[in-house]
Amino acid sequence: MARTRHDPVSTTIQRDERPGAAEDPSGPLLKSISPKRRDQRTPSQAVGAFFRRALLSENFILYLTIIFFVVASIFFTTLSAPRNITNQLLNMWPLLAIAIGQTFVLILGGIDLSQGATMAITSTIGGLVMSTALDASTYDKSPLWGTLISESGGILGQDPNGWAVAVVVMLLLGLLIGWLNGTMITRFNLAPFMVTLVSSTIFAAFALWLTQSRNVANLPEPFLLLGNGDIISIFLGPKLNPDIARRDVLPLITYPALISLGLAVLAHFLLTRTSFGRQMYSVGTNRRASTISGVPSQRVIIMVYMFSGFCAAVASILYSARLGIGQPSLGSGNILLDVIGAAVIGGTSLFGGKGTVKGTLFGVAFFVLLLNILNAMQLSPFIIDAVKGGIILIAALLDITRTRILNRGA
Amino acid sequence: MTRSTILTIEHISKAFFGVPAVRDVSIDVKEGEILGLIGQNGAGKSTLMNLVGGVVHPDAGSMTFRGKPYAPRRPADANDAGIGFIHQELNLFTNMTIAENVFISGFPRTGFGPFKFIDRAAMKARTRELLDQVGLDTPPDFQIERMSPGERQLVEIAKALYMDASLIIFDEPTTSLTARETEQLFNIMLRLREQGKSMIYISHILNDVLRLADSIAVMRDGQLVTQEARDAFDTRRMISLMVGRSIEQLYPTRTSAPTTTPLLELKGISAAGIVEKVNLTVHRGELVGLFGLMGSGRTELARMIFGLDRTEQGEIRVAGEALKGSSARDSIRSKIAFVTENRREEGLLMNIAIADNVTLVALPEFARTALQILDAGAMREAAREASQALQLKAADISVQPAKSLSGGNQQKVVIAKWLLSQPEVFIMDEPTRGIDVGAKYEIYAIMDRLAAAGSGVLFISSELEELMGTCDRILVMSQGEIVAQFAREAFSDEAILRAAFREHAPLHPHSGETEQSS
Amino acid sequence: MFKNLRKLSVGAGAAALLTISGAAGVAAQSDITICFGFQDLETEFWVAGHRAITETLRGQGIEVLEYNANEDPNRQLEQIRECIAQGVDGIIIIPQDGDSANTIVAEAQSNDVPIAVFNRPPNDRSAGLIAVADNVSATEQAVEFIAQKALRQYEITGEPITPLILVGALQDTNAIGRRDGFFNVINRYNERYPGLFNAPIEVATEWDAATALANLEAAITANPNVDFIFTSSDFLFPTIRSVLEPRGMWQPAGTPGHVLLAGLDGDATACMLIDQGYVDATGVQDLYLEAEMTMTSLLDAIEAGETAPNEVLLDPGFALTAGNIYFDRSDMWGCVLYDDGFLDQ
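ok -> structure tokens follow
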């Protein structure tokens, strides 16, 4: 019955030739690299491996966006028109700002459903305090009438630099809401979904109450520049006429671009270069193990939600400035679905522990392009929403597939 | 000898990322026999069983099951063919009842016409029969979450029986079982063998394998070393075959003597219902064992020392200074390290690179400037040094996730991450649980080196022999109290166990059966 | 007086038709593309408006690019920019609110694309082609109709009439205009026929059916002799019915106990209730006239090469009554929907 297939002594020698897999404490460590095995894969396996690698690649969505753009440009020539490209970039910036915040929260394994409401409340309060004139018949029912606001606008309305203070107020407000969310989540161990849903409801209602559901108009000029102002504009084409039509001047570098890209660089830096970023990934992967390893998990969670609120406030500034109004209904649509969709398309995992700013940037670009193409196809608005929903669903499925491949690979 | 073969594995191979995990392995399992499968972690046992279970697919080789070619594509194929799996981590839905778990793959239906509903009565009756077979008298509608690990194990077996498995594979089934539960499991396995079922039993506890198996297969480095009848083996031979050299001793000799300078001092630590007036001192250079049965309060005490759980009374001092604050961070600042018993959930970030795991605890030390920018070069270097010092075996610590390592190497990553914060007190809760003989030896050697360097180690274990083999002193904990202490000269397994059971409680036969060593 | 106004609006409509036929010629020659951005199609009023514009334009061979902003003014701004990038000849928007409309009009005009705003006027009416209903005028016409009936009743019985108005949310300019129109008529009649009307009862609704129900219940309980009700919006007719019916006050015209009822908007329910005789009149925005005026002015501007045409196009509205419903129902958007079976859906 006994079948000895290898003599123990000979295998011992064999092991010493192949270091790395043995468990011998006195054995040599990785001195030589084990010889590469020849690829004996069938073509179908090779194709499968290629797709797997592409799927796991950080730049997967960038390649997809580029291919998508090139192919679609053949059918819809307006897509590659310089004017359209600068337009789509302008659409991208505010979305990118929110998506970065959401990416942070998702890396933590959480979710921030209150970003929309944060945008609404920062937009209205910022708008109210910096407005240069307010109509009494509209606002005298607002609870702030007579204190922070009056007929001569908000408390900062008459100060030439009031808009800058208002911007700071908006950012602080975003941080405050994030702090509230994070504190509720960590102190009372509540589900992020629940906490942010509740705070979303409360702050959205609060914004409506403060303004009695009216928009805040008459925002100061310098503030409006933040949403639209170009710093460098270009004109493509022959200069036949000294007066170049406004529609032919393309905004190349704009304030929103600088603000959002600045935020992205900051976020990328935080995530990859600082101990805070490292701790975020670790808490998102395993909060218990992180806490035991001395990671201040509660503080990390609170700070991440604060950052998310901050990003929402930045987006709120861009949107409010662009439209020229403080808007209590800002972010009340399904913008959050777009944001989470873009982040997940960009490789952020809903299960936590995974995600990059670069990926989210690509995800947002993909999303904006997708919308642009759907619009160019002149599909019915109802179909556009359905297609968008479908794409987000596919992105979520991709996330699951990716996670599964990674788990199987090890 | 007339028994026919139920499962034949022929020249099977499997590699991950180009690294072979199983190489050209051929094994037979006979009808009605228990095959013991042993080998160190990373020897390829789990991969081999995953190949049988259809979780991964072979690169080469073939299998025959009950006379037919067998090539499972999915785990469900293995179930359908009649192969049941009892895993180390149980696959039960804890929020469901026993019966629901047994019938999870398809509930029996009853009713008329299009109106079908689940036939609960039939489900219960069948589950009752199955539970009787595995000797469990719990009602079928009992919730899994209210059951002990041992009982859950039995439910898993009942599930396999329901699937009509003719081959059941047990992967480290006793890891989380009490001695009594282990005994019960073995009795059932023997009874199943009488009924003609075949089994593969994978375990690190060699005495158990010797006791149960009819034949034993030894693996090393992804290859089969030998498959022979049980009688050809004893523990020593098994170990030398697994390790690839003859083992002179299971425990390293202590290379240093403890000092008399107190390092960690506990004075009157109490928390109602958990621990009671615990006094304990670990000196510099001392390796103190803390022995206790499950539920004796040893893990809870460790968590209190580290600041994870609250104490109600008492004082903890490290190097003469009272421990300030009560969080893991405060303890780390006071130079305490805590290797938890639960590596997977509390020790490691399984999906994250080894190097990132290693630098996690000491992260603040790599942060520069107010922005807390990390010094990537210093981190790389520190991680490399620490993993080298502990002889960690990994291809590339900066990309390979922690979960890709064997249990022993995972434990080294846990220790490495604590080493980087340069602690003086090490609390190690079951550091050798679930890791193989060779890796255990390495962990013991590391503890000895730590003590030799002047640290104090509190080594918590429920394996008395390893404490006796390694420690300078053993404290015994029972029902939240330290009930006895033994100096190295006075080590006696009988006396220690008697203390742990508080003398009057009867000694369990299995626990008493400790193998004498060194 | 009301007849004159009606003639006037018909005259405007005829003029518009003439110009449209002229514009159609332009379309045939030069492939006009119009971008139409709207907010949503969640109320019947907007369904009708959307249909009026797209069908008319497409009927003339003009290409229409449609954009739904789903009530998000920021998205509407992005969509209008996209239209501009595509080089459309003109833009029509139904904005989300008066404030964002200003920004969007400015965006289009600074890019030299003529823009018209349909029905929901920007706060600043000095820029863009702005078609807007005259709330005061439409209200006056509807209230005038029931005031005439009240006067006849007063001449027979000698009993003064007790009027009641359901007021909208007063931060809304529409609500203010409608309230003004109501009081204009009551005051005028009281001057000419002293003693005809008791002091009007004002019931606040905040444009909310539940608020309206509670306040109306209280008001009717306190003043059971109310026999003249004007609602600032037709959507409150079901609410009024639920208060009046249990008290026996929900009777068709000509039946004893009939309460004179008028409203504003002219939705499908109002059309049905006028058909059935429960409601006497409703002031209607002449949606089709507004659509015509918008399109005509925009196409004129495109033809003339104007990039920033500015004009307020005022729709005086008209009253739809039991008397004229057979003649004018095709001009009344609510009746068009009603006749299409909108209420059966």
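The domain at 2-134+286-316 of chain C is CATH 3.40.50.2300 (Rossmann fold).
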